[in-house]
Protein: Crp/Fnr family transcriptional regulator
Amino acid sequence: MDKVHLQNNVFSYFNRLGDEIDWKRLSTPIEVHLTAKSEYLFQQGESAERLYFLHSGLVRYVSVSGEGKEFTQTFAKGPRIIGSTRSMVTRSPVLFGIQALEDSIITSYDWGEFYQQMRRDNAFLECYSHFLEEIFILKEERENTFVKDSAERRYLDFCVAFPDLKERIPQQYIASYIGITPVALSRIRQKLKLKNRL
Amino acid sequence: MDKVHLQNNVFSYFNRLGDEIDWKRLSTPIEVHLTAKSEYLFQQGESAERLYFLHSGLVRYVSVSGEGKEFTQTFAKGPRIIGSTRSMVTRSPVLFGIQALEDSIITSYDWGEFYQQMRRDNAFLECYSHFLEEIFILKEERENTFVKDSAERRYLDFCVAFPDLKERIPQQYIASYIGITPVALSRIRQKLKLKNRL
DNA sequence: TGAGGGAGTTAACCTAGGTTAATTTCATTT
DNA sequence: AAATGAAATTAACCTAGGTTAACTCCCTCA
Structure:
């Protein structure tokens, strides 16, 4: 599990989105983070101007409201880029923390350096914009779901979108992902159970 | 108001995000749309794989739920890029229509051709990714607002985010932007009025 | 073995916002 | 000036989900 090997994982992930990236440009050092279950990679409010890559494991993005209520923005399973685009780009504190739900292997680069070194590489930029397109589309879908759908519908959608996660993570996190309390989710599940009995 | 002039508007808008774009690459023809107040540039469900630019005027993005309820995703004032990133990128039907709230001058390019012609230009790609970063960040903020804030809070935020629009557009569209019914918005405004009397 | 302690369930009550419908206000057309 | 009609307000009633709290399962750890 050396750094070279991990770095190659990251490269091949990027290469899947658009090939011929000239990785020789990249000299900024990779950093390794081993984040154990329930620990935080970084906390809300810190500055996390790094490009993180989740090699293996499972995390959630959690943000806490002024009144202290937790809200799960999303879940992410490796292998996958993670982190806060907003914080990287605007050089401002992150609006959410990243918590490991299972032991996770994560690496990171300083985004400022990474971007400066790679931004003249056309293949990289194209790949970066495809990544942005993708996360934008997901956010747009999520916006729609909150406005148009009931909590019950959102729960059913969650079960389709993350079929394996339903068993793997505590129910309260699912509730906070669909934007309701654990109590309300329990009620909904109860109702669904009765409905399917008929 | 000839096409050359309009095209220059679009170019200089892009150039503000990142200069030195080589516009000589671009040969796909620009198209002009004059969309009168309350008319649609395109309707939900159509294919709108074009890069639109709103030169002047005001529009809203409207999507209609299965039950026939309207929801306003956002408002856009010219000059600004408009359209559906999702539809452009995934070549799928748009999930919302664009309706003019005031007479608007809009131009468009076929996105497939535009992108093919410009994608080798580093300055353009960089500028495109900055655009994507920006719209992603806005969506993320909007996601947060729906989960964490009350409708009253969202209304107050709207008034700050679009100070001029409060007077310019019908209240029902504001309601549908913050995700509530016109009746509920009216109630909230009433409550705020009383509160500020004290 | 048994004593926490967190996660989920259930029930009772509360509240924000939805629904329907009546009323008013204002803008446009004739 | 009258007539139409859409937009906003208000009131009465309803419902989804929040809040609090009691109760039950585990699971862990001593």
In short: Residues 170-172, 182-183, 185-187, 189-190 of chain A lie near DNA strand C (CB under 10 Å from a C1').
